[in-house]
Amino acid sequence: MAILKHIASKNANYAEIQRYLMFEHDEDTNKPILNENGELIPRKGYIMDGINCDSFTFDMECRELNALYRKNESYDEIKSHHYIISFDPKDTDENGLTGERAQKLGMEYARKNFPGHQTLVCTHMDGHNKSGNIHVHIVINSLRKYDVERQGFMDRACDSRAGYKHHLSKDYLIHLKQSLMDLCHREHLHQVDLLAPAEKKITDREYHVGQRGQKKLDERNRQILADGLPIRRTAFQTQKDFLRSAIEASAVSSCSREEFQKLLLEKYNITLKVSRGRFSYLHPERGKYITGRMLGTHYEEDYLLELFGENSKSKEYRKETIASETFNAESEQPADQPSAPLQEAPVSILFIKSDLRLVTNLQDCVKAQQNAAYATNKVKLSNLKEMAKTVAYIQERGYDTRDSLEDSFSEVKNLASSSRKVLKDTEDKLRILNEQIHYTGQYLANKSVYRQFCRAKHKGQFREEHPAEIALYESARKFLQGQSADGRLPSIKLLKAEKEQLLHKKKEAQKTYHYYRDYQKELNTVCSNVDKILGQARTRQPEKQKGADIS
Questions:
Q1: DSSP state for residue 376 in the 8-state scheme
Q2: Are 134 and 125 in contact (CB under 8 A)?
Q3: DSSP code per residue over 156-213
Q4: Cα–Cα distance between 495 and 133 in angstroms, integer?
Q5: Which residues are in the MobA/VirD2-like nuclease domain (predicted)?
Q6: Of 155, 98, 149, 158, which Cα lies nearest the Cα of 124?
Q7: Which of 63-67, 91-95, 112-116 has the lowest mean pLDDT?
Q8: Are 117 and 52 in contact (CB under 8 A)?
Q9: Which of 230-244, 351-365, 472-486 has the lowest mean pLDDT?
Q10: Least confident of 135-144, 175-184, 357-366
Q11: 196 CB-side CA count, 13 A
Q12: Which letter does DSSP use for residue 546 in this model?
């Protein structure tokens, strides 16, 4: 999907952005990369054009315009705005996106949304950190050069006049995102709803903090390996990532806000604060709270309270199911025979996620090797608790052999795989249906203009006057003809009704998949802990050892 990123710069040296666009730069330090002769290395694949300026004299022309209007002279003023459109890497193979096509779309987008500004439009084909995704840089001088016709997205009257600065308001940013989505839908490129709040919100700053932290961790791990010590962890986790993981783990087994708050504090030392209907979280190493809104919609009050309600209903249902099965089993068995286990097949038991964690291997814990008190008081005691929980877990669920535990894990794994396939198929159907709804609406919206075009005496002149409407109509008609077997236009009402059914089906499929996915993770933890209890090095038992008693 295409995403839009904005950077406001107070750097008065416009030549630096030109060098960044034209020459190789280190993505971590943002400094130019030099060859063995100390010279800048040109980028291998880029296309650059200028609007209302020459692309190679952009810096001088911007300074001349600033001097003419005596603007952008103080340090605190924003000198330029940098917009980046990053396309989905799949568009290159699936939708024929090339650098030339992306540059053309970037030029169209810049002319439409930043009229009157001196603009650099540059397309890079190598992607961020050599990821391979095509992206377009649009850099504008914050000062407008020409008077333009006032557009609907301009808040102030002066936003269309020369000598006034680019004003990015909240509504303007919404317009820019909507314009990008419309452009991608028109060009049949992958796109998501940029206006919908993110379930997991990761800012650009957090992303780079994670990248730098991972790089430092990798360097440290290389030193540890060189010293002959085992590596403790390989993945770096930011403070926000730690909060998200802790919230997800605590919320999935909580039935109320109080229970959720207690779990966060006891297990992760995270303090939950509720103020004016908002959840805020205090990381153990911070002095300032982080709001749920900064983490994503799945960490805010509305979503979590709804999840607690579902957990409470599931818990009540589990109690009723167990009571009913127990009553039926006792009524069917003779009085002189002992009652059978509650459930032979663990898969059929309603799964409620437990708080089981993996047993820590002392040989893998560098801190435990360096500190004997920490190894005894923290790691060993924690391991004893997890082993006790594991033994209680397998006894409660009637696992009497390693073989039965492994069979349950395999069965749940297969169910997780099949439920994931069902979810993916539903999402594919929903994507196709959304395209049909989009093009049907596009077809109907431009149908009247196309009728006028068909009745016009001078069709060439009429097409020149309404090129966008006619092109949109013809592309929508072509798409719908390819989708319909009988050539009939689908009904918007029926399509929306079908979409509601698919959305409901998708929600149910997500619940099913998440259910079996969490169940699989839990059984995997149980299997690993059992292997540690039995003194086995591998997570999975070899075939010749299957069938040995767990106890």
A1: I
A2: yes
A3: SGGGGSTT-B----HHHHHHHHHHHHHHHHHTT-----TTSPPSS---HHHHHHHHHH
A4: 33
A5: 47-146
A6: 98
A7: 91-95
A8: yes
A9: 351-365
A10: 357-366
A11: 9
A12: T
Residue 121 phi, psi dihedral angles, 5° rounding: -120, 115
Contact 260, 278 (CB under 8 A): no
Q: What is the pLDDT of residue 325?
A: 56
Closest CA to 240 of 281, 300, 193: 281
The edge-to-edge listing of strands for the beta sheet with 117-124 is 3-9, 80-86, 135-144, 117-124, 46-51
Phi and psi at residue 460, to the nearest 5°? -65, -45
C-beta atoms surrounding 33 within 10 Å: 11
Distance, CA of 181 to CA of 193 (rounded, Å):
7
| The pLDDT of residue 194 is above 60 | yes
The Cα 438–Cα 286 span in angstroms is: 46
Separation of alpha carbons 220 and 359, rounded Å: 24
| HSE-up (13 A, CA, CB side) for residue 483 | 19
Checking if the pLDDT of 340 tops 60, the result is: no
pLDDT at 543 exceeding the cut of 50? no
CA distance 539 to 480: 53
Taking residues 508-518, report their average pLDDT: 88
Spell out the residues 6+ positions from residue 405 whose beta carbon is closer than 8 angstroms to its own. 394, 399, 523, 526, 527, 530, 550
Residue 103 is which amino acid? Q
Site of tokens 């209890």: 533
Amino acid identity of 280?
S
How does pLDDT run across 26-82, given as a tens digit for each residue? 877 778 888 888 888 888 888 999 999 998 889 999 999 999 999 998 888 999 999
Q: Say what the pLDDT of residue 487 is.
A: 67
346: exposed, middle or buried (Cβ count in 10 Å: 0-12, 13-18, 19+): buried
> Please, what's the b/e burial string for 283-298 (b: 16 or more CB within 10 A of its CB; e: otherwise)?
beeeeebbebebbbeb
Instruction: Say what the pTM is.
Output: 0.53
pLDDT band at 372; cut points 50, 70, 90: low
The answer, yes or no, to whether residue 354 has pLDDT greater than 80, is: no
What are the φ and ψ backbone dihedral angles of 140, each rounded to 5 degrees?
-120, 145
Structure tokens at 158: 């002066």
Q: Which of 500, 502, 505, 499 shows the shortest CA–CA distance to 436?
A: 499
What count of Cα atoms within 13 Å lies in the side-chain half-sphere of residue 367?
A: 10
- Indicate the pLDDT class of residue 138, thresholds 50, 70 and 90: very high
pLDDT of residue 346: 40
